[in-house]
Amino acid sequence: MIPLRLIISNFRAIEHADIDLSAVTLAAIAGRNGVGKSSAFTLAPRFALFGDVVDGVSLDDLVRRGTTEMSVTFEFEHQGSVYRAIRTRSTKGKGKSTLELQQRVGSQWESRSAEKIVDTESVIRNLLNLDDETFTASSMILQGQANAFTGATAGKRKEILSQILGLNVYEELQERARQRAASLNIEIEKAKDRMLTLNERLTALPVKEDDLRMAEDQHCVTLEMIAKDEASIKTLEARINDLKIKSERIGLINRDLGTLDDEIASLERERSEQSGRLERAEKILANEATIKTKTAELEQIKQRLAKLEARQPEVERLRRDLAETEADLFRLDEDMLKTSNHILILHQQLAGRETLRQRASEYEQESGRLLSFENKADQWNLLAAELRTIDTQRDREEARLRLEEQRICDKISELMQQEAHIHDSGCLPTCKFQQAAATAVAELPELRRRLAELDRSEFHLLAAVIAEKQVEQQVIGYDPEAHRTCKGRVEELRQAANAYAQLSGKDELYQQLEQQHLDQQVRKTSGEVRRNDLQQQLNDLEAALAPLPDLMSQASDLQRWAKLMDEIGAAREAKQNAEERIVSIGQEIITKRIRWEELDKERTGLVLETLEYDSLQRELKLSQYALQESRRQLAVLAEQIGGIKAVLAALDADRQERERLAAEIEPKALRWTRYQTLIKAFGRDGIPALIIENAVPQLERIANEILGQMSKGKHYVRFETQRELKSRDGVAETLDIMIGDWTAERPYETFSGGEQLRIDYAIRFALAELLAQRAGSKVEWLTIDEGLGSQDAEHRTLVLESIKAVAGRFRRVLVITHIEDALSAFDQVVRFENTDGGIEIHVA
To answer: Once rounded to an integer, what is the mean pLDDT over residues 704-726?
Structure first.
């Protein structure tokens, strides 16, 4: 994995930083304490990839104080493809986190994220084949944690080394073998249990065969009983059908008797109704004279009502005309008020004519002055823009000169320090350090000459042009304050000038409004006269219509007598018809009662003949029940026979299954034995132990190459992978670190702090290279955070030389340090500087 770019926003102390690492190979990270160097190059990548990476610090604590939104974008190259991880955190509400993994395909970014954050983190771990702990231990030496590997317990060291070598895959293989063996064992045990169950079930086979023979014999007997019952039922059904016909005749007679009862009752009701009609007709005919008198009185009232109702629309018309006249008068009053107000305003405007004329003249004078000011302002602003452009060019040239001068001075200082250090080292002339000093001495004069002859002519030329432009500005004589004052005065006088220009047409408008007001007075007087006249007409008409409600009430009371007048003729006819119908109804009732008695006599005879019908019905039901029971027993026997046959078929299938299971158990048992062998081979003492035994010599070789450079060949490192047991015979797996010098070997823990740090670096560099060579994920990035502080000047130089030697084995090597003397050892320096907009990154 190779880092390409970091974009950080509100992460810890960093407000904003965009760090492009694509051109960085070996660089020192410089800047004052607290500016965010460690946060940017150690915590930010880990946070983007793995999330919660700081023990005891919540995600909300990583958000910069005073803000609520934080994000880190980490872009990196891995196995020939470019990816970026974007992780955000918001502290709003209950807090919210997001994680997005993307891959660059052509010029586009395509998502490789899962639905949930935890699943996306799993995708990242599978992509890199690393977790946070192994990633950090192999590619970073954090501040104060140089001994993260060497200071760990022997078991933890071995666990880290196993992860670096990708041995966790054997744990997965062992677990898969265990699962498969367990699955096979379960299948074998299930087959054995199944065979025992089948054997128990097959013991019932002879019993079921005897049950089948008995059930078939009983089935034949039941068929004979059913045939006898069916013959008996046919005889009973014939006798019952004959009696049923007679019972149906009884039902028809009962229905006819009911019909006759209903018809007699209906005739009785009709005779009662006819008696009522006769009585009402006789009453109407008795009051014939009164009805005629009341009907004549109603006709007279209707004539008066017709005359009064004909005048009702006139009332509504008068009310509408009166309402319209009053509305016209109201609108006329409003128009007159508006006209009076307009006349008053015009009178006041015409009274101030002289004052407006004077202010309009003053407006013309000030407008001329404003035009002059604006011409000068245009010339002034043009020169100001030219000055800003030239000033920017001068600043850029000055910055270029300072950067070039600083670069040459830094190189001179580095070569002078290297020359002084090599002279004091006592090395032979053939030593490579002595040869480097000779090269430095030869290069120093050329660098001093370049510093003295640095070309500053462009800078001086730009300064002279700026001075000329400033003189031209002074010649213009532009006064911005006077310009603003004049502009304000023009705006102040503009309204008065416009008002004066409009006065010429307002005299004629004033006269027209006065004439309009007089016309409105005349129209108002005419409207008031019309309103009074309409009100008088309405009052007279309402008085004439006052008797109308009483007449309407009287007409309503007399209306019922008029209806009786129409019924006098019908009453005479109804009386005659009712008398005739009453006689006819009496004769019909006598005839129907005679018929009812005849039917009742016939019904009595039939009832005597059908007395045994119920007993025959009961006997038939008993016979049918017996037949039903026989058929049910027959169905049960058929079902029983079918069930026995199904059981016999199932027992035959069980016998075949028992034979199949016996044939399958043997090959499964052989496969289970093979998986047991694989479980042992994939275990800690199997293939992983052999790989570690083979990798440790390579780790020792790389570590000793680096440690020899740091200690001038004084120390070497050796790893012990086995240790004799004290409590009993045998050896235990371990990973102890033994350090040797010119006298003897002793454990790593017995050395001083500075010596331990050099040993830590040598082993950590070796682990990083081992990961690059052998692990499933190639990390070509090494970050060292503040690892030079505990070294003296001599050993610090050796450590720096070792870092340079290791740098060739990685694509990116970043060293975070606050020691200024160490910066000269690096060709590239990444400087962190605080600005108002965030963090500025300068790569030199």
So the answer is: 79
